[in-house]
Specification:
By secondary structure, the protein is α+β, with helices and mostly antiparallel strands. It is 50% helix and 19% strand. The chain has a five-stranded antiparallel β-sheet. The longest helix is centred in the middle third of the chain and has 52 residues. The protein is rod-shaped, with a radius of gyration of 50 Å.
Length: 452
């Protein structure tokens, strides 16, 4: 059994309790059955006893005798387990069945009133345990008067034999009942845990952005859990919103001083102090890269969790339309290959940021052609941006994906484009990979979950 499986734990507990309950029920049924058999046998012994009493006779001045003994053949078979005995009191003659042979029934010395029938468990021949019924009879004067004790006994082994036969028939029935009850417990556990599956599916929808909260469409026992999760999501949303606001405020607060420093550096350069101007510009460029990165990271938050389904082609056309008007994009051939119905679950600003950074990077290095391809592959939406530039050697791919990583410091840019794309793609549970393009340059591929 898996340690973490609640379903199997509940099933094991249900199966154990079912087996225990049926075992107790089996012992109880056996006890009741033997009691029932014993009562039936006692009634049969009472019938034999009455027959013996009615058959008592005495010849004139002769001994007491049984005119018509019970017709049961076992009374005539020695040590058959069925016996009768008639004893005159006090210490008179003893009449007994042939089955007793030379033994006598050792009856307890209890007090019997006339017509009372007592039932005992007494030892018998061969160490057997006997079920005995007895009755004291006051003889009429026609039979010589006095009293006699009449007893009939049966070996209790027959009761136990009937019990064993009953158990042999009962066990298959109880086993079948146990199997049915365990199967019913499995179904019951499945039905009982279904609301937890609903919570899991709802949480998956929250994580994928299809819904914002779990809601209250759960049974009463699960609704408090869903409410606590929603409260936690509310608190997380507030915390992330505050963090995003603080990061944005900090980034925007640094932007203006950086612009002032850049202006001062340019002024120093015009005065002839190029060395100091270069140092200031190097520092401000590094700070600006971090500011731009934090501005993008500040946008990665709750929007990622609840982003709507967006069409891809209009964003591609918008990005290319902007880049075509830039100096580096005017002389390039732009190829677009994406179906109109291609969609992805992403905020439009994030999608624009991803495609914009990739297309801008391709335009920077392309010799004449930039190609953007979008398609649906299995359970993923794939976006590819490739160019016919020099490309990136395989051993340097990690460098260009690093924060601020640049292969050519003489080209414009901050070196954060691909790193920002990587952050955004990762936030949307996607994957960014780089390799050589069929055009000869770099191919950047983004795989995003396919919205359903």
């Amino acid at each position: 059994m898996r340690q973490g499986s609640l379903r199997l734990r509940l099933l094991a507990a249900g199966a154990a309790s079912t087996v225990l309950a049926l075992a107790i029920a089996g012992f109880g049924l056996l006890y009741l059955f033997e009691r029932h058999v014993e009562r039936r046998m006692a009634a049969e012994l009472g019938s034999h006893l009455n027959q013996l009493v009615s058959s008592l006779a005495r010849a004139e001045n002769g001994p007491l005798e049984v005119n018509t003994p019970p017709a049961e053949p076992r009374f005539l078979q020695p040590l058959s387990g069925l016996y009768w005995q008639i004893a005159e009191e006090p210490q008179g003659a003893v009449l007994r069945s042939r089955s007793l042979w030379d033994a006598t029934l050792d009856l307890p010395s209890d007090t019997l009133t006339a017509a009372d029938v007592h039932q005992h468990t007494i030892p018998g021949p061969g160490g057997a345990s006997l079920l005995a019924v007895e009755r004291r009879i006051a003889l009429p004067t026609g039979l010589g008067g006095g009293t006699v004790r009449v007893a009939v006994a049966l070996d209790r082994a027959e009761v136990h034999a009937a019990g064993r036969a009953f158990v042999s028939d009962l066990i298959p029935s109880l086993a079948l009942l146990a199997a049915v009850l365990i199967a019913a417990a499995w179904v019951q556990v499945g039905i009982g845990l279904r609301p937890l599956d609903a919570v899991r599916r709802r949480l998956a929808q929250v994580r994928s952005g299809k819904t914002a909260r779990l809601g209250t469409a759960f049974p009463d026992e699960v609704r408090p859990l869903a409410a606590e999760v929603d409260h936690l999501l509310d608190a997380q949303e507030r915390a992330i919103t505050q963090a995003r606001a603080r990061a944005a405020d900090l980034a925007h607060g640094l932007k203006t001083p950086l612009m002032v420093l850049s202006a001062d550096a340019e002024e120093l350069r015009t005065r002839g102090d190029a060395h100091l101007a270069d140092e200031i510009e190097t520092v401000t460029a590094g700070m600006r890269r971090h500011v731009e990165r934090e501005l993008v990271r500040a946008r990665i938050g709750l929007r990622v969790q609840s982003g709507p389904v967006q069409p891809v082609l209009p964003v591609v056309e918008q990005v290319i339309g902007v880049l075509r008007r830039t100096p580096q994009g005017q002389g390039l051939s732009w190829e677009i290959n994406a179906p109109d119905d291609l969609r992805t679950r992403m905020d439009i600003q994030d999608l624009t940021e991803i495609l914009g950074n990739l297309a801008e990077n391709a335009a920077t290095w392309a010799a004449g052609t930039v190609r953007i391809v979008g398609r649906r592959e299995g359970d993923a939406v794939v976006l590819r941006v490739e160019d016919d530039g020099p490309g990136v050697p395989e051993e340097q791919i990690d460098t260009v994906l690093a924060r601020g990583g640049r292969l050519d410091e003489t080209r414009p840019g901050t070196g954060l484009g691909l790193a920002i794309v990587g952050d955004l793609v990762e936030a949307h549970s996607g994957l960014l990979s780089l390799r050589r393009s069929a055009l000869g340059g770099l191919l950047a591929e983004v795989r995003l979950p396919n919205p359903t």
